[in-house]
Every structure is written in C-alpha cells, then in structure tokens.
Amino acid sequence: MTTTHTPPHIRLANEISAQFQQRDPAAAAQEIAQHIRAFWDPRMRAKLIADAGAPGSGLDPLAVAAAALLPPATGG
Amino acid sequence: MSLIKEQDYGTPARPGEATVSVEIDGKTVLVPEGTSVMRAASEAGIDIPKLCATDSLEPFGSCRLCLVDIDGRKGSPASCTTPVTPGMKVRTQTPKLAELRRGVMELYISDHPLDCLTCPTNGDCELQDMAGVVGLREVRYGFDGENHLDLPTDSSNPYFDYDASKCIACSRCVRACDEVQGTFALTLEGRGFATKIAAGAGGSFMESDCVSCGACVQACPTATLQERSVVELGMPTRSVLTTCAYCGVGCSFKAELRGDEVVRMVPYKDGKANEGHSCVKGRFAFGYASHPDRQLKPMVRERITDPWREVEWAEAIEHVGRRMLEIQAHHGAGAIGGITSSRCTNEEVYAVQKMVRAAFGNNNVDTCARVCHSPTGYGLKQTYGTSAGTQDFKSVEKADVILVIGANPTDAHPVFASRIKRRLRQGAKLIVADPRRIDLVRSPHIEAQHHLRLMPGTNVALINAMAHVVVTEGLVDREFVAERCEDFEEWERFISGPEHSPEAVEEITGVPAAEVRAATRLYASASNATIMYGLGVTEHSQGSTMVMGMANLAMATGNIGREGVGVNPLRGQNNVQGSCDMGSFPHELPGYRHVSDDAVRGVFETLWGRTLQSEPGLRIPNMFDAAIDGSFRALFVQGEDIVQSDPNTKHVTAALSALDLVVVQDLFLNETSKYAHVFLPGTSFLEKDGTFTNAERRINRVRPVMAPKTGKHEWQIVCEIAQAMGYPMKYDNAAQIMDEIAITTPTFAGVSFAKLDQVGSVQWPCNDKAPEGTPIMHIDGFVRGRGRFVDTVYVPTQERSTRKFPLILTTGRILSQYNVGAQTRRTGNTAWHPEDLLEMHPHDAEVRGVRDGDTVSLTSRVGETSLRVKIDDRMPVGVVYTTFHHPVTGANVVTTEHSDWATNCPEYKVTAVEVALRNPAPAPAAPAMAE
Predict the structure, then answer these.
(1) Where is the 4Fe-4S ferredoxin-type domain (chain B) (predicted)?
(2) What is the model's pLDDT at position B438?
(3) ipTM confidence score
C-alpha cells in the first residue's frame, strides 16, 4: 500500500508493476523496463535504479527486477 | 469581408444516389429522390417565397406562402412538403399564385407591429423580405381588430429576448428545439388565433428546460427571438469565419461584427463539425474576450509576495530569457520547462514545444492534456497505432448502437450530443455506462436501453466483463479478427477466465450481471456499434487500461474501419487533439514520434539547427515533484490554470512556491499567477490567427477578427523569449508555422492555411495518400499494421472509501461553465451556475442531516473545502459529484495524487471523502397568515 508519503517514483513504479502481476516475471520485468525507459525522465529513472538496490525501499519485486534492466540514466 | 449569408434551400438535402429529373419554370433540374420541390427550385436558382421553411428543419407546410402549380395536379400544393416526382412540371410564378401569396402575407402583416424602421432586425427579417417579394402594398383588414401587438417580451434569458408581439407562429423555433437541439423545451400553445409559443409549461424561458443553444433564435424569421446584442449594438456589417474556443467539438462560427466589435457569433452551416448548430457557450459566451478583467500589459515582480509592476514587452521578454539562462547555469539544462495549452492554436503550441526542445535544450514540455486525455494517447497508440479517435462526428448517423462510457455529452459536448440524440430518435439504441444518471439516460424522446450504473473506479472490470460475454457467447467477429488483428488468442484465453464474467465482477462494479450480458449482446449484435467516451474513462488510475479495453471490445466485434463504428474520445477542450499532435508530450515530437527515434530527431535537428535530447522529459506531475525536491526550478505556463485545475492543490502550490521563476501566459490573472514572477498577457480566440484540431482530428482555421489587444501574438512572444535565450526563432506569420509543421510531420504534410481557406477543413492524416484528409481511420488496415489485443488486468485503485471517508467523490463539468471558469465566469452564463454545488443522493444527505441548499464541508485525506448541497437522486448512494468551475470552491483541494499507471493522468474521478453539515440553509419564510 502506498501513501501520500511514498516517494512518487516508487509509487509510480509499483502502480506499473501491479498491471503486470499476472505475467511471467521475466517478461513482465522487460515490459516494465521498456515502459519506464520510454516515458520516464532520466532523473526519475536514476532514483528508481538507486532505490531498487536499497533494502526496505517499498518497491514491488517486479519493479526491482525492471530497474535492473534499465541502462544508467543520462541527460535530462 | 462583408456579411456572409448562406443560401437557405428551404428544406434539408436528401441523401441517396437515385436522382429525379423535374422541370421548374422551364428549367430542368436533377435532384436526389425525396427532394422537395422547394429545394429543387432553389438548386435551380429559383427562390420560392417561404416563411415556415428553412433547410435545417423538416418541412412543415404551415405558412402557405410557398404554393406552386404542378401540371396535372389540382390546387396549389406547398412546395416544401411536396417531393419531386419524375417528369414533374412546376410553375412557381403565376398571377394566381401571386394573389394567393399576397393574401397570405396580408393576413400576417395585419397582426404584426409596423415598426420596421426601428426594429432591431430591420434589413435582416424574412417577414419584411417576403412582404417585398410578394409585392404587398396594403392591408385591407386594418389594424384595429383583435391582435397580439400588446403581448409582453420575455427577457429572462441573459442573451436573447422573446418578443411575442412579433411572432407569426411559424413554429420554426419549436421545430429547431425539437429537431436540431433535441431538447423539446418549446411548444405551440393554444389553438387558432390564440396560438402562441410557450417555453416549458408556459413560464419564462429561464424557468423552462431551454438550454440556450440559440437554435430557436437562429431559426426565427422575424425579430421575435432576437439576440440582445443586436438590439443593443445594431445589425452586424461583416463576418469572419472562425472556430469556437470552448469544447473539443470545434464548431465553426461566423463572428459577425460592426467595425471591430463582435455583435454576435452565428453557427456556420458549412462547418463540418456542427453543420449550423451551436451551444450556449460558443453561441453566446464570448464576452470574456473584452472583459475588463483582462490584463493587457506584461508584468514582472521579483518575489511572489511583491506587487506586480507593469513593464514593456521588451523588458518582460529580456527578464524571462535572462532568468531562464541564469537558472540553467546554476541548476543544469533540465531545471526548466514549459506547459502548453489545449486552448491555444496548433501554431502557438508548436512554438512552445520548439522553444523548450531547441532553446531550453530539454524535453521538459507537457500539456494540459496530461490531466485529461493522455490515456487516450497511450491506449489507442498501443492497440491501433495512433493517438486519436477513429471517426468523424457525422459517422454517428450510421450507428445502430451507441455506447457512451464516462461521458456526459449533453453538458460537455452539447452540439455533438444533439447529433447523438437525433440518431437515437431515428431508432438507434443507447447504452450508457456511468455512475450518474446523466441526461442522456432519459430525456424527451430518448431512453437508454441499458444504464450500466457502475461504481467509480470499476470501468476496467466492466469492460472486461463485456469482452468476456463477447468471447464466451460466440459474438466475436472471427473474420475481422483473423484478417486485421494480432495477439487475439492470448487475449481470448485471458478474457475467457471466469474471474471476468459479469457474475464474478457484479460485486465490484455494482452492475447486475444480466444487465451487462444484455447490453453486451446489444452492442455486439449491431450492424454498426460505436463507442463514445470521455474523462470518466481516462481520469482513473486504470485510464489507459480502460482505453485499451474499449479498443479490444471494438476489434473483437469488428466495429472498426467504417462509418457508424469506432472508438471515439470526446476531447474536453477545443485543441486537446491538436496540442497532443503538436509534440506537447515530453516523450514525443510532433506527430507522436518518440524522442529516441534518431531519424525523426534528425528531421528537426536539421531544420532547427540544434541537437535535441533523446530522453523523455518531465510530465506535469513529475515537474511538481521535481520542483519540491529542488531539481526543477523554472516553469513557463501557457494558458492553463494549474493551481485550480490540477489535483491536490496543496501539492501544486507547494511546488510552484518552490520554483525560482514561474512565467504565466494567460488572458486573466488566474490562481496560478498568484505564484508567478512574470505575467505575459495572452490573446483571446478572437485575436488569434491559426488552427484548432477538434476531437474528430478536424483541422479548422481560427481567423482573427481583430488585432491582438496585447500588441503581440502569443507565438511571437514565445519566439522572442527563445531569441532572448540565444536561439534564433522567427516567423513572419502563423501560416509559416503551419508550413513548418507540414514539412516535419507526415500526417500534416498536406495541410496549409491556403488549403484550409480553400476547402474549409481537413481531418489528418492529410498528405499525398489522402490529399483531402481522412474522416475515418483504419479502413483497410490499422495504422500500426494489425490491431493489437492487449490483456487488460483490472487493478483496483488504491483510493478506497473508509470509515473516515465513506463516500466517493467524482468531478466533472456542467453545460453553462467551462473548466476552471476563467472564460464562462466572465459572461452571462453565471445566470445558470453561479457556484459549484455538491450533488448527493437523498439517502446520503438524510443520514448526515443535510438538506438541499445547506453548506457542507467536503473533506478528503489531503484537503477540505465547503460548498452547498444539491440533493439529487441522479447520484447513486455512496457517490457525490461536483464541478471545478469556481476557484472559491477549489474542488481540487480534495483530489489526490493517484494517477493513471501509464501516463500519470490524475484520478479525478475517485476520491474518498466525507461530507458534514456546516451551515444549514435559511429556512423558507413561513407563509403570512391572513388577518
């Protein structure tokens, strides 16, 4: 459950992950990563990648797996 | 340009290929079968006198002025009600006919005020014209007998008068209200000499069901129903064809002027979106453009607590350019950005996104469509390959079943609603999916076959249940799917799952399973079924999923690629479609092409002379978050009041307060400008030169009726800011901007101002493959090749009703007001909706001790506001509704940060709230007791 105090990038990543819960986890992680790559500003991606490695981030496991597939964010 | 007068053929055109040859006054004319003698004559250049006939209405045959002689027929039939037959020989001018017509006119004039010289419609009165045409020279009956000359004038409507003394009881107003508008607010009351027009049950126009669309005023052949602006200012002397700046229907209007003063806006008969019809906003609510509240000079201040200081344009532009560069120097290229407006022209929007991408050097550009139809862009692109509706408006005339989901067309898209209602009166069936009992569910001569009254937030569960019925009951169009689509088998397995059955989701949606099954069978079995949807679809945490769910349903039933079918977003603002087309999203260049596409970026880099970023920029909600975390420091806002219109006002104002520079370009000092450092005055639609693109992808010209009151066009200001930042950006006129759009954007390749001036309007794609545009998309194949079925998992919103917040609030629009009300609140439209009200079911009101008119507090977990209650059983139990037209209410104080998972479109339609009595309404005064 996310709240108003959940960082926006974590809330968004979890909401995206919720859409893919019924899919094969590997394929889901790929699709989530593609979506984030296509629509997220690099600074948000950088935060996601940073938090994905931190314990207790509140990130859905699929979001964590997707973050691992993202290239390091540049620009923005 | 002089006053434009469209030809009135007397009766409507009849469709059909079969033609009939007739001879009228010795001229042979070929017309479609079913055409009236009157229209055939008009097409042959022969005008038959008429009063009760006009070509927007079915013939009525009451005035007896259009009599003709037909060889082989007895008497002199009315030409308006007589259809042509093969070989018919008609004479329209004979001594006998002349005498008959003079006699008719003599009777009319004997009971009509003879005040032509002082009448407001002197020179624009069909009665006056016909008296001349028939050669009336005297009235033998005198004027002393019983008459209607002392009947009172009804001035209750803020925009037009009803002067009963001038009424000739031709019934054109009654028929216009019935046939054109579909409201049935007017009637002919009484018999014979006592016949008169009555509004509603005989009270005033304002007390009646009249929606002030202006159709009756338009149809009236005398001064009986007359715009008050004509009474006050006199008859206009010239016309300028332009496009309405309110909703996404994009009606064409003749702005009729005296000098530079707009006297009235008259719907243009040849406008393809509206075909001569209008609503209360476009027809009458244009006074805001000359309202004294308009700020016409630029203003600057260092801090938002300082008073504003009026400056010259040069100082304002230099200030913006210098501050933007300073902020980038300290915080990086990505620290600034801009928001484009769906109320501005394509050319103005294109200029802003170009300024951001080329002069700012980033992709931090977004548009107010983020908070309305961004899920449409995502969902339709994923499934069909392009981010736009599939049909033209006229297509609905071929629909057999109309499924309206999360839209309230009679309030938000009234002119298109009239088209829908006309088709429904012809026999098409209607399914409405909406928590509220909107007017379309049941109104005069219309009743939905099914009202799927679902709980807010459960759209996806409902559409999945409908798709489940299609798949499991053998209603799939297998041939269409096999030929045109992909990924069907996987989707079929997904949607066939028992968890999607209507019975399984009944508890979630609140819609009885049998009703869902029956509605689905109706939709899927129709020859042509069409889906119309609005923000009740998109403004949810599953908005994009729902758009894809509707796309799936239409594909599975083969309802794509011809007239009468399709999936059609009803866009909220005049240029939502255009602002999205123009590259306003941070991940897309013009024409919906991703910024990471090297070839596309190369086209713009070559033309613009700058290297463009290949990474997406910040979306509006991301800009707010980044402002609060300090990485985003400056924002240019074109024509959008984000403080009033975006969700969670406290969050928005905190973000704006954290910025070093906020630049607002708008007509008025709005709520957002309270947080601005620079105010750049904008132009109204009456001053703009450019194009709007409506919900059917129709590109219409917006022509200036006067020079900018501010001294500059908005695109000029944007160019000058870019120049102040060191980027050379210059156009001589708006046409050059459209030429650049055409060069860079394949779907617009054939568009130019010259073409639009020549043909009126075109629907994109307009290019070598479709030089006259594309009314209906995906006819031979989808834009992406094959239509793609997408699994649409229903993920409930995290916004849930609780013991503390047990009600669900949903927000929307009302007919007379428009969005944040900046325009309509500055017009006579406030007569209908002076404040935002909270609609509430009687049960929810009673258990809280709330009565109609009481002031209540409306509280969510993020904020609180107060407003008065309107108790109405159109609401379901547990759901309350309000509008967001008035800043004093600030409905978005209570809406939350939840948004669509794919696009960040806010979830305006689901907020858990509680309502509590604050101030009871004054008790009605007790009736005085007789002594």
Answers:
(1) 158-189, 201-230
(2) 97
(3) 0.94
